[in-house]
Amino acid sequence: MTPPRLEVPVDFGFTEEHALLRGEARRFLAERLPIAELRRRVDGGVRLDRDLWKEIAGLGWVGLVLPERHGGAGLGWLHLAILIEEMGRRLVPGPFLGSLLAGVALERAGDDAQRERWLPAIAAGETIATLALVEPGGAFEPDAIVASADPVAGGYVLRGRRCHVVGGADSDLVVAAFREPSGGIALFAVELPAPGVAVEEEISIDPSRPTARLAFDGVRVGADARLAGDGAGALAASLVRGCAALAAEQVGGAESILQLTRQYAIDRKQFDRQIGFFQAVKHPIVDLMCGIELARSLAYGAAAALDAGSPSGEVHARMAKALAGDVYAQAGRKGVQLHGGFGFTWDCDVHLYLRRALWSRPMLGDAIHHRKRLAGVLFGPG
Amino acid sequence: MARPEDATESRENAEFRREARGWIEAHKPADPGFKLPQSFLEVESERQFAFLRDWQRKVYEAGYLGLDWPAEYGGRSDPHKRQRIVSQELHRAGAPFMVNVIGLQWAGPTILAYGTEEQKRRYLKNILSAEEIWCQGFSEPGAGSDLASLQATATPTDQGWVVTGHKVWTTLAHFARWMILLARTDPAANKYAGISYFLFPMDAPGVTVQPLVKMTGEGGFNQVIFERAPMPHDALLGQLGQGWQIAMTTLTFERGAAEGTGGGSAASAGESVRAVAALAKRMRRDGRPAADDPVLRDRLAQLWIEEEALRLTGQRARIAGLNVDDRPLATRLMNKVVYSEFGQRLTELACEVLGPDAALWLGDPSAPDRAEWPRAYLNSFGMTIGGGTSEVQRNIIGERVLGLPKTK
User: Fold this and answer.
1) pTM (2 d.p.)
2) Which chain B residue is nearest to residue A252, measuring alpha carbons?
3) Nearest-CB residue to A285 (from B304, B404, B407)
């Protein structure tokens, strides 16, 4: 097998609409979620603001990539990348990522009745949904799932555990993959709370992204909880899209660290000079910018490839997640360091981004994970 | 779910790409049987030069060079920006590079931007056809990274000017008909305002070209000594004292040159990582194909990611809405430093893939791939140093793009 030709439309499929969405998102978030407001929520232990969530849904963001016939905006992944990049710049708290991926999984694996039952409510912000991916031990790709679904009269019994579930403690609906006796993977949608589903809040390194552990301890669900379509395919598609989306969010967060650090290097004086004068400070900031721009290209490229239905979508999404994850973490490390003593304090905003970077780097696979799979494509079998 | 390639570019561009690919495959010169330079930095011999000049002329005459240049100066005024497609196809085919690269990428665009009508008509067509080769006289022994401290002088005479001074790293000077030259015209002015930009005739008396030997052992660049070497009034480009400003324009072309008109150089995007992957399949490590080594696989996968990111960044740089609005220059100005450093890391990794055989040099009969990988690695420093070192590039990006305090 030779590597796929990496195809992204030469114009990225970009239109003026994308710029409008970016402007709208930037204005809204600057007004509603300045960093002081984010800190107020984090310090106050606010896990979910349903009013804000409904407002965001009202802007069309929650259902952005869902089909219009199911209440979504019917827009593409480049739109989503631009939106979530802006959200990443502001560390927007809440269940957006989980909701996004649950929507993708439901849309891909559900039949019409299942889509109609859940998607419009998700897009409207009335139902908060999440996709529960990670099993204890860290596995999340379809071939590694050990949780089981056993058929019984009138439905199934689900057994298994998931952790790091975004918005898990606030979700009304959880979508998760289970292995069936045939060995295949099926997706199930379980409305919460449900008997037998234990939800335990995790203490997340990133206080702006609350997560939970879920235990399915012999949970009985009806036959209609099993999504009708190809579960493994829908899960794989959700992971690819999650990588593209999370990469764009990481780019946004890294961009904020760059802006904070750049400003600090201009404002802070030592040895009678602005510290940004010194090349030991200046050059790492430049390297940070270069890394961000490269990761941004891959994030947009992955989104554009997905929109174009290009066969390179998965390769591009894995590349984007690998590079953006590392760039964000490096931005956090350099950002704290270049802020000196102030950087080590709770008051400096950089650590809020560093925490998000450390949360999101391993989720949906870190660079080591993706490079291993990319090498398989680059070198081919044998 | 494969899609046809033309689904991702316009039908006419895809058609043009197919035509260009077909033409290149049909006309690409065969291996001449002697060592070819890896880039324009090491064109040593007359036969190498003649081989490369013939190829550029052939490409131009077939209509595949100067597409973006105005038709009245020998170009084709192509509205579709399709020179890039030709460059990609030349690189993909492993075709030789365009030998008049300094004319094509730096002198030509600068003359287009600042030249008089007469200058444009005089110089541009012969750049495209490789009829007249160009070299660049910017750096001096005492003026490298601090280019503005240059000391060569141009003194006015009745017939024009006479130049006295010493330029170094003058690639292609031994084949060049013209030089883009920076010289001081007002020693009393501050170091930026005292510089002017000239189009200097290399056949003038008082010019001595002396070859320098690169660390690869190859020639190809030179130093040039000027002893009261004359040039006419109309050798001046732009206004008197405008030289620094024009030079910055030239360097922007140079630093954004990765997508220019070449094939072949280490700074080209494309199939380079795949070539190293193919090398790893041929080489052995621990008694198995080197391509089975998990550490090597991981490192090459990282470079594959970066190579694709570079390619897409070049593509994205042309779409205003996909660049961060407060630094539109970022993706263009970072091009030189990220491409050249990528090329250096890739060729260095290729040497590691070779294992102990990386120790063999040009001419050894057992050297894998005739030692082109170690040669490419050593040559990669020409890219990270030439045209402004990576360190100076970082100053420029930090100051011009990010607004950090100036180093000067």
Assistant:
1) 0.91
2) B324
3) B404
